[in-house]
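Because showing beats explaining, we think one record worth quoting, sequence and C-alpha cells together, and here it is:
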Amino acid sequence: MAIPSEPAPFRPRYNMRYVWAISLVAALGGLMFGYDWIVIGGTKPFYERLFSLTTGWEQGWAMASALLGCLIGAVLSGALSDRFGRKRLLILAALVFVVSALGTAMVDTFWAFNVWRIAGGVAIGLASILSPMYIAEVAPAAVRGRLVAMNQLTIVLGILLAQVANFGIDQITRNADMRMLAEAPVSESGWNAARVAEELAWQVKEKDRRQFIEEFTDLAAGRSGKLDYEGTAAIVKGIYTEQAKTPVNTDDKLVLEVVGREMTPLNVTSGWRWMFGVTALPASLFFVLMFFVPESPRWLVKNGRSPQARAVLTRIGGREFADRETASIEETLVGEIEKVNFRDLLEPKLRWIITVGVIFAILQQWCGMNVIFYYAADLFRAAGYTVSAALFNIVIIGAVNLTFTVVALACVDRFGRRILMLIGFAGLALLHFLIGAGFLTGFTGIFILVLMLAAIGLYGLSLAPVTWVVLSEIFPNRIRGAAMSISVFSLWSACFILTFTFPLLKEGIGAGFTFWIYGAVCTMGLVFCAKFLPETKGKTLEEIEKELVD
C-alpha cells in the first residue's frame, strides 16, 4: 500500500518588482532623514561665524536642536501612525521636510535657525520610525531584512548626498570669492592692511597656525562675516608680485590660502543656506510618490479593513499568500484590536522586549559614531586639515559608509542580525581606543583619517543598519507603533545627549579621552548583545512574536 505523500510546502511567487518599488518609495524617508540629519556638519563653520557662536554651549545647541525635533516626531509617530496609518504620516513627514528646508535656508537670526531645525527634526523623527516600520509590514519574511536594511542604505545615500553638496557648494562659493577678489581695485588704505598681512605672515613661524587663521580672517572680513572686498583684495595684492601675480614666499602663500580657501564670506552669508535649501528637491519627490503606494496591510487588518489588506497582499504574493497572511495577522490580533494603553506596555513579557529595544537604540548612538558624522569638520581640523580638505575627507567618509551599507544588504539575511552586531561592537571598541590614543599622543593626520574610515565602514556594516532591522522586527503587531515610538524616542534622546555633550567633553577632557569613553560603551554593548539579542533571520513577524511573547 502506497504511503500518501505530504503536501508540498507553500511557496508563494512574490511580485518582487512591486515590493521593491513601494519599499524604495518609503525608503526615500530614509534619504531625507540622512540628508537633513548630516548636512549641518558641513555648514557648521559658516553659520557659526555668521551668528557669532563661540561657546561650547552655543555650538552644541545649534547641532542638537534638530534632535529635539526628532524626539517630538518619535513621540507623535506611534499614536498618530496607529490612528491615521503609516502612509499618511509619511506624507506629512515629506511635507515638513520641504517646508523646514526652505525655512532654514532663509533665516536671519539664530533663534529662527533653531526653530526651523527643530521642525526638520520632527520630520526626521517621523521618517526614522515609519519608513522601516512600513517596509517591515509589507515585505515578505525571506527578504524583509534586506528591504529594511535598504532603508539604511537610503539614509547613508542621503548622508553622502549632503556631504557632496556641502563640498560642491563650498568649492563654488570659494571660487566666486577668489574671482571677486582678483577683480577688486586696490585702495590706498589697503596698503596699510597689506603691511599688517605681511606682519601676520612673518609671525606664523612662531604662532599657532589656527590663531593666525583667526586673526587674519577677522582682519579681512570682521566677526560679522561680511567681506570688505576692496580691503581684502589689497591684502592679497599687497603680497603678489606686480608681474607674475604669484605669492612672494611660502608664508605669503599661506596667507592666500586663508583668504581663498579657508573661510570665505559667500559661504558665511549664503553658501550654507544653499546646503540646507537643496533638501527641498528630493523632499518634494518623496511627497508626490507617497500618494502612489498602498497602506500597510497589517495596519489595515488592525483597523478592521481586511478586504483592502487582502488586496494589497494579493498584489504582493498572490491570492493564497494573501489569505494565509491575512489569517496570520488576524490571529495575532484576536482580542487585541482595542487601543493600546500604557498599562499594556507594562506587561512583564512586553516590558522586557521594549527594554531590549530601548537599550539597543541607545547603544547605537552612544557607540559614538555620530560624533564623527556631526563633528567631522572639527575633528579633521584638530588633526591638521583645512576646512576645504576636511569637507573633502567627509565626502570620502560618506562613500565608505555607503559602500559598506551595500555590503550589509547582502549580509543581513545571509549571516543574521546577531553576528553582525557582535562584530560591530567589538570592532568599534578597538577602533575608538586607537583613535583616542592618536589624539592623546599627537599622532594624527592620516592615522586618524584611516581609523575613522575603518570605524565608518564597520558601523555601516553592522550597528547602523542592523539596529533598525531589529527594532522593526522584535515588537508584537499590536504594540509595534507604540514600542517603536518609545525605542526611537530613546535613540534620539541618546543622540541629543551625545551631540550636545561632545563639544563640552572635548573642551573639558580632550578628544582622546572622549573617544575612550565611546570605546567603553561599545565594550558594554558587546556584552549586552552576546547575552540578550535574539536572532530573527528568516522568520515572519508573527513567528517572532510567538517566540518572544508566548
In short: The first helix runs from residue 16 to 50. DSSP finds 24 helices and no strands in the chain. Residues 174-271 form one domain.
